[in-house]
């Protein structure tokens, strides 16, 4: 199930040279929205600290809170399932779908289901699957995967969507965003009313009440979880939070960090299926709690990554993501959090580029609502690559030689003196080196030439009487 | 300033040593005109950051321990780089966690380590600068200095004291230039593209020069400007502008 993701550089190259994607990425500015969104929080830093500590507290006793959630949810009629692997997720959903004889399945956003390729697995079993989040719907029509965790179709423009709608809806072409949205709404409405199973993600699991906590903007989450007769929620083990009070603290930051909204348009708590006397709600409610590599991080130097509340702020602020977009990363989660989670979930050796493809500018760490030290975690992953001998030998040799010389000032001074002179020579009259063989620097930049003599030499000369 | 001069050890940085010695001499001039006694430990090479950020912890540790030895006798370690100063101040404690016997020494050095402009303003209380510059410049905040050390107002404060100079802010001065150390070599294409956004931002100010506090970012921005065919916009280290560009 875990497809390796080599070819990061080639994908990034393609995206950097795709004019349409570049235009879309230049127009993409949720970072500015976040800045406006947090402006009204006088004690932003205190709330971040509190939110991080709530997440740490949940993770420190994850077993306790998960069992408590299972107890409370079961007491209220929800069926709780445990998925150790991605295959387990698909197996459990297919079993429920078969037993309840559903044919049509509608989905609200679930990134965990992207991890297990659930849609493909369901379709292979003959079920019809329709994504109902507008972005996910567009991506599904295009036969693609989300390129952002909260803005899945951010790589598409209105013309792309117009073409897709003509092809799949058979309607006259339109490019007005409002009209396109209304058309999607009309088609999705039919699906909402005819869906027999609704699959959703889950932003949080509330241990004290056994509730599924769902944050959406389009209202599709609420329809997906209440209209069909079966509701299946899929979420990671790390999403459990002890109390509603805890979530209320985190919620002060989630939408603000994501889209700049003080709160999302819809906040839905699902606590069990329809009870006798209830006028609506599903006949069955299932929650699938997924491990798939998560608990392996507990108690390690990577645990902080599990604090993540999937707001997307790290990618929205990442200079790398902003230029290459989400698909270049090659797996479900792009951006800084993806560069940390992907190697942890699918194997360090299967995502060698990701932790290295970052400037470590720490803009991500500064905006993360739960204070995940993303650059530190990426750096630790780099250390793990070195420890496991996963770096190219040229790089290892280079670093070893460099470190050897850096500890021997005389030899170091001699080597830098030669380099400074050679660089000055090759820089020529305009003191510019245009090509360094085997060096990525000159792929898009010149290298200003060194001045010709090192500081060390000049300073020694100046000190002489 | 007391009559006892502050003994400042200048950490030149490997890039200044190799590429732009003038920045080192500008730093000395500034520190001396702020009333400090400047020592330049002659055996210094690098802070270890290239190895640290490449995951080669053992090499980084060896080089870091050497820095600690070299600057033991100074009241302060000052560096014309937010990145190198940030490495020592914000990362040495973690890097050298395996050497508990050195912990006190590491913490002492970290606490005494400053980026040049923040030292001049916050510690030395510098109020007049020798440089003169006729025209507008724009200032780029280098990531490490800004986010690890809080260097933001100090360089602007000092630039504001340079005769003839006006600072014209770019749209997003805190946005990364795309350098990222070895990232710029390993992922040159992405790095150059990020630099491009920075160059656009610089160009939109119409400033004659972009001024910044780290040589890595400087080479990156200057290299991208040149490749774009911009031969007009100058790129200066803040120390050069503050000390005066006629400095040898």
Output the structural class of chain B: alpha/beta
Strands of chain B, count: 8
Helix content of chain B: 40-55%
| Major sheet attributes of chain B | 4 strands, parallel
Biggest sheet record of chain A: 6 strands, parallel
Q: Name the poorly predicted regions of chain B.
A: none
DSSP strand count of chain A:
12
Q: Strand percentage of chain B, roughly?
A: 15-25%
What is the share of helical residues of chain A? Answer: 40-55%
Walkthrough of the structure:
The complex is a heterodimer of chains A (465) and B (248). In chain A, the strands form three sheets. Chain A has a six-stranded parallel β-sheet, sandwiched between helices. With 465 residues, chain A is of the alpha/beta class. In chain A, 49% of the residues are buried. The model of chain A has no long low-confidence stretch (mean pLDDT 96). Chain A has 21 helices and twelve strands. Chain A is 49% helix and 11% strand. Chain A is elongated and about 100 Å long. In chain A, a hairpin with a 4-residue loop joins strand 5 (204-206) and strand 6 (211-216). In chain B, strand 7, helix 12 (215-227) and strand 8 form a beta-alpha-beta unit. Chain B has 13 helices and eight strands. Chain B is α/β, with parallel strands linked by helices and 248 residues long. The radius of gyration of chain B is 18 Å and the shape is globular. Chain B has a four-stranded parallel β-sheet, sandwiched between helices. Chain B has a four-stranded parallel β-sheet with strand order 6-5-7-8, with helices on both faces. The longest helix of chain B is centred in the C-terminal third of the chain and has 18 residues, at 188-205.
């Amino acid at each position: 199930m875990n497809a390796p993701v080599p070819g990061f550089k080639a994908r990034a190259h393609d995206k950097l040279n795709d004019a349409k994607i570049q235009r879309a990425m230049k127009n993409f500015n949720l970072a500015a929205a976040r800045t406006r969104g947090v402006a009204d929080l006088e004690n932003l830093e205190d709330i971040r600290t509190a939110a991080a500590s709530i997440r740490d507290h949940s993770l420190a006793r994850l077993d306790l809170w998960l069992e408590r959630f299972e107890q409370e949810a079961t007491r209220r009629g929800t069926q709780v399932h445990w998925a150790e692997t991605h295959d387990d997720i698909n197996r459990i959903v297919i079993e429920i779908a078969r037993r309840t004889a559903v044919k049509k399945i509608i989905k609200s956003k679930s990134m965990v289901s992207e991890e297990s390729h659930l849609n493909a697995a369901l379709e292979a079993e003959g079920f019809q699957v329709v994504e109902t989040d507008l972005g996910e719907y567009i991506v599904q029509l295009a036969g693609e995967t989300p390129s952002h965790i909260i803005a899945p179709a951010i790589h598409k423009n209105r013309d792309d969507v117009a073409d897709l709608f003509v092809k799949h809806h058979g309607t006259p072409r339109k490019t007005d965003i409002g009209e396109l949205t209304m058309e999607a709404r009309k088609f999705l409405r039919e699906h909402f009313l005819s869906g027999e199973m609704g699959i959703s993600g889950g932003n949080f699991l509330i241990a004290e009440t056994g509730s599924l906590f769902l944050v959406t903007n389009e209202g599709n989450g609420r329809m997906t979880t209440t209209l069909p007769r079966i509701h299946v929620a899929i979420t990671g083990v790390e999403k459990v939070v002890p109390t509603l009070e805890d979530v209320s603290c985190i919620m002060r930051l989630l939408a603000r960090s994501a889209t700049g909204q003080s709160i999302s348009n819809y906040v839905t708590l699902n606590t069990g299926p329809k009870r006798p006397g209830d006028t609506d709600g599903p006949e069955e409610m299932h929650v699938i709690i997924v491990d798939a590599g998560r608990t392996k991080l507990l108690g390690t130097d990577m645990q902080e990554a599990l604090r993540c509340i999937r707001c997307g702020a790290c990618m929205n602020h990442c200079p790398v993501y902003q230029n290459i977009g989400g698909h270049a990363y090659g797996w479900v989660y792009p951006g800084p959090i993806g560069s940390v989670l992907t190697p942890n979930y699918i194997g360090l050796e299967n995502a060698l580029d990701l932790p290295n493809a970052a400037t470590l500018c720490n803009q991500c760490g500064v905006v993360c609502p739960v204070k995940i030290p993303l650059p530190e975690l990426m750096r630790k992953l780099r250390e793990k690559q070195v420890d496991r001998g996963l770096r190219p030998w040229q790089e290892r040799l280079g670093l070893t030689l460099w470190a050897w010389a850096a500890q021997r000032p005389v030899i170091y001074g001699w080597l830098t003196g030669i380099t400074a002179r050679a660089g000055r020579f090759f820089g020529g009259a305009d003191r510019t080196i245009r090509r360094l063989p085997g060096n990525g620097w000159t792929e898009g930049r010149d290298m200003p030439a060194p001045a010709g003599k090192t500081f060390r030499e000049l300073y020694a000369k100046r000190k002489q009487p | 300033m007391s009559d006892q001069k502050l003994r400042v050890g200048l950490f030149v940085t490997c890039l200044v040593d190799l590429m732009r010695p003038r920045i080192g001499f500008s730093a000395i001039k500034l520190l001396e005109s702020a009333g400090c006694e400047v020592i330049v430990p002659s055996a210094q090479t690098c802070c270890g950051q290239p190895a640290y950020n490449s995951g080669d912890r053992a090499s980084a540790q060896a080089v870091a321990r050497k820095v600690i030895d070299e600057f033991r006798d100074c009241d302060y370690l000052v560096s014309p780089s937010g990145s190198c100063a940030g490495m020592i101040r914000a990362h040495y404690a973690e890097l050298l966690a395996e050497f508990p016997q050195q912990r006190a020494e590491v913490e002492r050095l970290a606490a005494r380590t400053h980026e040049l402009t923040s030292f001049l303003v916050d510690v030395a209380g510098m109020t007049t600068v020798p440089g003169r510059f006729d025209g507008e410049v724009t200032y780029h905040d280098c990531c490490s200095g800004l986010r690890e050390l809080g260097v933001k107002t100090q360089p602007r404060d000092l630039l504001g004291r340079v005769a003839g100079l006006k600072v014209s802010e770019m749209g997003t001065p805190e946005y990364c230039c795309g350098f990222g150390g070895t990232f710029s070599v390993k992922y040159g294409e992405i790095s150059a593209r990020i630099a491009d956004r920075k160059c656009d931002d610089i160009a939109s100010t119409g400033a004659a020069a972009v001024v910044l506090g780290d040589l890595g970012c400087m080479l990156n921005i200057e290299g991208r400007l040149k490749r774009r065919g911009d031969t007009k916009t100058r790129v200066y280290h803040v120390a050069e502008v503050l000390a005066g560009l006629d400095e040898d």
